[in-house]
Specification:
elongated; DNA binding; mainly alpha; 9 helices; 2 domains; 72% helix; Tetracycline Repressor, domain 2; Arc Repressor Mutant, subunit A
Length: 196
């Protein structure tokens, strides 16, 4: 049974706002995208738009969440788990505004009082778990040896990806995907070393 009435309209308008915000931020970044511009794209006033989101932080959090859902749907069928991670990072080069939003907003959220602090804690935990699974797949396939701590590998990949995104925002010649693949290859090679 389809949902009708004001709730359904509100949900549909919220989805429309998120789509417009994703598009605007991907094209222009957060510095050149204003809530008023997003509101105009969906035929609302700024006040009308903010009726659907409690704050700018909630809007940006939902933009990142929508982007993550899109990336999961798009790259879930990668040949091996880690390839999906690399594909997302390589795709990021096509959406510099979203990279900027992620870098700046995640840095702001390091403060425990920030409204999106918990969101980023959960996001990193989820990504860590996914990358730990990728390490397990690599071990099962023989690409990675047994001398490896899956959590440490996941944390290194996350830290490298975040750092490379900052470097790429400063210098677009940085090959984020290539550098992450090189790190992965080095970690795979090191995982076979005898540490006795």
């Amino acid at each position: 049974m389809a949902t009708r009435g004001p709730y359904a309209k509100g949900t549909a308008k919220r989805a429309e706002i998120l789509e417009a915000a994703l598009e605007a931020v991907a094209q222009h970044g957060t510095r050149r995208t204003y809530v008023s511009e997003i509101a105009e794209r969906v035929g609302l006033t700024q006040t009308g738009l903010m009726h659907h989101f409690r704050s700018r932080e909630e809007l940006y959090e939902e933009v990142i969440r929508a982007r993550d859902e899109h990336d999961r749907a798009t790259y879930a069928d990668a040949p091996t788990g880690i390839e999906g991670f690399f594909a997302v990072i390589e795709h990021n080069q096509e959406v510099p505004g979203l990279v900027q939003l992620y870098v700046e907003f995640s840095a702001e959220a390091t403060h425990s009082e920030h409204p999106s602090h918990h969101f980023f804690l959960e996001r990193y935990a989820s990504l860590r778990t996914a990358l730990e699974r990728d390490v397990a797949l690599a071990r099962e396939s023989g690409d990675m040896g047994g001398n490896v701590d899956p959590t440490a590998v996941a944390d290194l990949l996350i830290a490298a990806a975040d750092g490379l995104q900052v470097q790429w925002l400063l210098d677009r010649s940085v090959d984020m995907g290539g550098r992450l693949r090189a790190l992965w290859s080095s970690l795979c090679l090191a995982s076979w070393a005898d540490h006795a």
